[in-house]
Structures are given as structure tokens and as C-alpha cells.
């Protein structure tokens, strides 16, 4: 597993009747692969995982694994309230063709450090799949500290972190403490270029669902040391990237996908589609971005090179 590059956190496409829309899902997946992403992540918060049944999650995994056909790794997110359910999912994941796992801390209970580490270790012990820890204390109220990582990296399958603390200097703290033992992927769209410049290995992205080529271009330009070109695209992108750091990020990003021709606005209740002045305000941000899309360098000129 190569925890490097752009990993879209894919949205889950629904019909107007709130059923899975696998045609729209596959079309977006095709756009991501065409843009040159390095992996995909299923079942995250952006994927409305909390509203999906286990059978629906299995269907999404099978659809993605079959469509990708080994071109890039498929990573499954695990976000559960009960350790035994998280373990059950981990035990089945490899047999479904998943290449890696992303783990959130326990849901709906603010576990302490010992409980959180025990939870992660129990899941890791149930599978040989490589694991990325999702560290997002802002939204999930549990921080995975450096001392906790010191304990967790004793397990060889725990290999990466989705860094979402909103503290850019945490990239340097992790690198100073662990060197390259832990791969670091930025999990906050509005801090992505900053963290990549500071040495992050990748980007778990949200607005990539609507703008895959721009996202991949920024990543590859930074890694090629072409900072001025990356900065120009990033400055254009920032008003759109800010849609990722709002409680309605799902609705906002799905509206962006729709405007870009890569999805639909349909969400699953309790979420509701945007209406009225809020929809117009967000659509104005999106349409302004679409009207001023920057010219990108040829992606073949920016192959992913370490």
C-alpha cells in the first residue's frame, strides 16, 4: 500500500428515491481515475456512511473494486460505535478486495486515550490490511496524540494518518517524532497545499469529487517543486475548498459535482437538498469557480514521482 498522492473521499450517489445510484457513482469514479488520482476512499463522512446499511456499503465496495480493477487502491472507512462491529468489518474487508482501511475513533462515545488505542489495536489485530488513522479532534472530539501514535506504531499495519487537526505544524511534529514511519495525508482541503509544502505525503480530498484534475495538478506541481504554478491554482480553488469545512459539506460538494457534470444533488435524510438563498449563495461560489477555471499543465508532464 502506497499512502501517497490524492485520495478522493467519494460521495455516495443516490436517486431521487434515496436508492443507490451506481451509474452516477461509476461515472464520477471514472472521472477520478481519468484525472490520475492515487486511491479512493469509501464510506467516509462525505460518503454519508452513517445513513448506509451494511449491505449498501458492501455494494459500493464491490462496485468500486470491480470498476477500479486494481488501477488504484480502494480504502474502506470504518466508523463504528462498537468495537466488535468495527472488528467484524475489518475481518471481511480483505475478502471484498479492499486494499486498506481508514479508522475513526469510536463513534458516539468520547473514549479516553487508553480506550481509543485499545479500539484501534483490536481492529488492527483482526486484519493484515494496512491502516490509516483518521485524526480529527475538531469534528470527532477525540485527538490521537503523538504519545498515542508512539503506542500505535508498534503495530506494523498502522502506517498512515489522515491529519485533520487543523494545525499545520502537526505535520512537522509527526515527522520529527516518527520520521517516515507514518505517512501523512492532509484531510482538510483548505490546508492541503500548506501541509504538502511542509512534507505531507498526500491529500485525502473532498472537492476533488467535483474538480479532480485541479486537485491532482496542485498535488503534482507541489511535489515537482513548481510552487508558483501550484499556488496560482490553489488561490483560484480556495473559495471552493472552503465548502469542505462546513457541516453541510455533503450538500455543498454534491451541488458542486452537479454543476461540474459529475454527480447529482440527491442526499439521504436527515440531510436535505439545499434550497432558497443558501443554495443560490453556494451555487454562486461554484459557478464563479467554474467560469474562471485555470489552465492546467498537461498531467502527463506531472507524473507522480517521489
Mind summarizing the main beta sheet? 8 strands, parallel
SS-based class: alpha/beta
Low-confidence stretches: none
Order of helices and strands: EHEHEHEHEHHEHEHEHHHH
Q: What is the count of β-strands?
A: 8
What distance lies between the first and last C-alpha atoms, to the nearest angstrom?
A: 15 Å
Number of distinct helices: 12
Question: What helical percentage do the residues reach?
Answer: 40-55%
Estimate the strand proportion: 5-15%
User: What coarse outline follows from CA principal-axis ratios?
Assistant: globular
The mean pLDDT is 96
Question: What is the CATH level 1 assignment?
Answer: Alpha Beta
Amino acid at each position: 500500500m502506497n499512502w501517497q498522492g490524492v485520495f478522493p473521499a467519494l460521495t455516495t450517489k443516490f436517486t431521487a428515491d434515496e436508492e443507490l445510484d451506481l451509474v452516477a457513482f461509476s461515472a464520477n469514479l471514472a472521472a477520478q481515475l481519468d484525472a490520475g488520482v492515487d486511491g479512493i476512499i469509501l464510506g467516509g463522512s462525505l460518503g454519508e456512511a452513517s445513513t448506509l446499511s451494511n449491505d449498501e456499503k458492501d455494494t459500493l465496495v464491490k462496485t468500486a473494486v470491480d470498476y477500479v480493477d486494481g488501477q488504484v487502491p480502494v480504502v474502506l472507512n470504518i466508523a463504528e460505535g462498537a468495537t466488535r462491529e468495527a472488528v467484524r468489518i475489518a475481518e471481511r474487508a480483505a475478502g471484498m478486495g479492499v486494499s486498506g482501511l481508514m479508522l475513526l475513533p469510536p463513534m458516539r462515545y468520547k473514549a479516553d486515550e487508553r480506550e481509543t488505542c485499545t479500539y484501534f489495536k483490536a481492529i488492527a489485530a483482526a486484519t493484515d490490511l494496512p491502516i490509516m488513522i483518521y485524526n480529527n479532534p475538531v469534528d470527532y472530539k477525540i485527538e490521537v496524540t503523538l504519545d498515542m501514535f508512539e503506542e500505535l506504531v508498534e503495530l506494523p499495519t498502522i502506517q498512515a494518518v489522515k491529519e485533520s487537526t487543523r494545525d499545520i505544524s502537526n505535520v512537522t511534529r509527526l515527522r520529527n517524532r516518527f520520521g517516515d514511519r507514518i505517512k501523512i495525508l492532509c484531510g482538510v482541503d483548505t490546508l492541503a497545499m500548506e501541509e504538502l509544502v511542509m512534507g505531507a505525503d498526500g491529500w485525502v480530498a473532498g472537492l476533488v469529487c467535483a474538480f479532480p484534475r485541479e486537485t491532482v495538478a496542485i498535488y503534482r506541481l507541489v511535489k515537482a517543486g513548481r510552487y508558483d504554478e501550484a499556488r496560482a491554482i490553489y488561490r483560484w480553488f480556495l473559495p471552493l475548498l472552503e465548502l469542505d469545512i462546513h457541516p453541510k459539506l455533503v450538500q455543498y460538494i454534491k451541488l458542486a459535482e452537479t454543476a461540474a457534470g459529475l454527480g447529482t444533488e440527491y442526499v439521504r435524510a436527515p440531510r436535505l437538498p439545499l434550497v432558497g438563498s443558501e443554495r443560490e449563495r453556494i451555487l454562486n461560489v461554484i459557478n464563479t469557480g467554474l467560469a474562471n477555471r485555470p489552465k492546467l499543465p498537461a498531467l502527463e508532464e506531472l507524473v507522480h514521482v517521489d
